[in-house]
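To the wet lab folks,

You asked to see what we're planning to order before we commit. Fair enough. Below is the target structure as tokens, and below that is the sequence we designed to fit it. If anything looks off to you, flag it before the synthesis order goes out.
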């Protein structure tokens, strides 16, 4: 594989996540079923709407309260929403640092401000790293960009910013649709399928 830059997704590529923990946490706070919580969040497309920058953190918290029909506090909303976030293994951080010795490394993630703040807090406590931008040459975060994977426009935007052609980029993501849309415009891709980690996928490349 020949490329000039590496782009990583965040969830389940760099940081381990478990989506159902969000539904479990909201269920505990509201005494409503996990199935009900999941249906409400899914039917109202809360991930896509929040993570494409359609509302602020405070607006999101209020929409959660309205959607779930329960007077959750801001702290409860944030705690349940952040329950998805697990850990970033030290070996993955070491791999990113190793790759950066030879290639620029970028992060492209469908994410939101609440999760990014919590991830930075985790990095400080667990790895003595103050912010994600210490690990990457640049962060491309969906909620800041007003775009969303797998829409093609987000890849074109990143390529334009980096002044690179699609074939000059290697992109690692855990979502099949994101991989397919990136492939469709000529980006080189690797589908990351947990529990196999990026260390295994990258060991014969870098």
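Sequence we intend to order:
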């Amino acid at each position: 594989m020949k490329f000039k830059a590496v782009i990583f997704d965040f969830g389940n590529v760099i940081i381990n996540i478990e989506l159902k923990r969000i539904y479990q946490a909201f269920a505990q706070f509201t005494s409503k079923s996990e199935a009900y919580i999941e249906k409400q969040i899914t039917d109202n497309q809360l991930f896509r709407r929040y993570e494409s920058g359609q509302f602020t953190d405070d607006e999101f918290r209020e929409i959660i309260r309205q959607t779930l029909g329960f007077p959750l506090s801001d702290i409860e909303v944030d705690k349940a929403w952040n329950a998805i976030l697990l850990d970033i293994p030290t070996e993955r951080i070491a791999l990113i640092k190793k790759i950066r010795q030879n290639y620029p490394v970028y992060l492209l993630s469908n994410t939101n401000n609440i999760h990014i703040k919590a991830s930075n807090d985790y990095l400080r406590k667990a790895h003595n790293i103050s912010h994600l931008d210490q690990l990457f040459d640049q962060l491309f975060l969906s909620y800041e960009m007003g775009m969303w994977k797998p829409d093609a426009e987000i890849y074109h935007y990143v390529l334009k910013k980096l002044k690179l052609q699609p074939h000059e980029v290697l992109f690692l993501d855990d979502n099949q649709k994101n991989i397919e849309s990136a492939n469709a415009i000529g980006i080189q891709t690797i589908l990351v399928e947990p529990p196999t980690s990026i260390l295994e996928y990258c060991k014969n490349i870098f």
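Structural context that might help your review: The mean pLDDT is 97. Residues 113-127 form the longest helix (15 residues).

Thanks,
Computational group
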